[in-house]
Design goal:
Blueprint: H1 15-28, E1 37-38, H2 40-47, H3 51-63, E2 67-69, E3 75-77, H4 82-106, H5 109-128, H6 131-147, H7 152-173, H8 178-194, H9 198-242
Antiparallel strand pairs: 1-3, 2-3
Helix pairs in contact: 1-3, 1-7, 2-3, 4-6, 4-7, 4-9, 5-6, 5-8, 6-7, 7-9, 8-9
């Protein structure tokens, strides 16, 4: 996704919803990474909409915990801590394991075929090593399961969690062996789905998300430790300079 993709070229009735979708996708795909400051004027120019529409979209993003509003209305993309990531993935494990059980029980052959097609495309992209495209397709994979689960409540709750970790997924996929391991986990999951085995599918989904959680949390904890260690070092350098 590029900055020029944000612009809303039409003049739809529901401009706010279009602006909201564009900004939400920009955050989840890493165009606006965690910690980045968002400026209303720049967002208006990028989207081609009024400040009122942008502000309404930002209010919704704040409610979804995707952005944070600080003093003097400084707006930044929310940073997900290692503790937050662990909790989000534990919730995902519960919700999406149940969702895939429902999917196996309710989905028609067309839905199963769509999931199989996405799975095959995932393997092709994996062989190319395109982490960004793989993360986007993984989102489509999960969305297909949520849509076919037959539960709006489960789907809506899981989607909110997915949006908060989409950018982190890209980063975890870049870790050594995580792509290959994740693909094997998807293989097991899709096999259980095709065989119409809801218990096996739920078990495979839980195992996949548990492994993803461990990879992401470990990465974030390492970054947090590095950041904490850098604080006294910067203070010492500043003290030496002032002395």
């Amino acid at each position: 996704m590029e900055y020029q993709d944000l612009r809303i070229v039409e003049n739809p009735t529901l401009v706010r919803e279009h602006a909201l979708d564009k900004l939400r996708n920009a955050i989840s795909r890493g165009l606006y990474p965690p910690g980045m400051r968002l400026v209303e004027r720049e967002l208006c120019e990028a989207l081609g909409v009024s400040r009122t529409s942008v502000r309404e979209a930002l209010r919704q993003l704040q409610a979804e915990n995707l952005i944070e509003v600080g003093k003097r209305r400084n707006i930044t993309v929310a940073v997900v801590s290692s503790k937050d990531a662990e909790d989000i993935y534990l919730m995902r494990e519960m919700l999406e394991s149940l969702a895939v059980q429902r999917f196996v029980a309710l989905a028609d052959e067309n839905a199963i075929k769509k999931l199989v097609r996405i799975h095959k495309d995932l393997r092709k992209v994996l062989n190319k090593g395109d982490v960004r495209e793989l993360a986007i397709m993984a989102g489509e994979f999960y969305e297909t399961i949520l849509h076919g689960s037959g539960s709006k409540v489960i789907a809506d709750m899981a989607r909110q969690l997915l949006t908060r970790v989409n950018y982190l997924r890209m980063r975890s996929m870049a870790e050594p062996h995580r792509l290959e391991d994740g693909m094997h986990e998807w293989d097991t999951l899709i096999e259980a789905i095709v065989e119409r085995n809801p218990e096996a599918a739920a078990k495979a989904m839980a195992a996949h998300l548990s492994n993803a959680r461990k990879a992401i949390v470990a990465k974030l904890q390492h970054e947090e430790e590095q950041a904490a260690a850098a604080v006294p070092e910067r203070a010492a350098v500043s003290s030496r300079r002032s002395g």
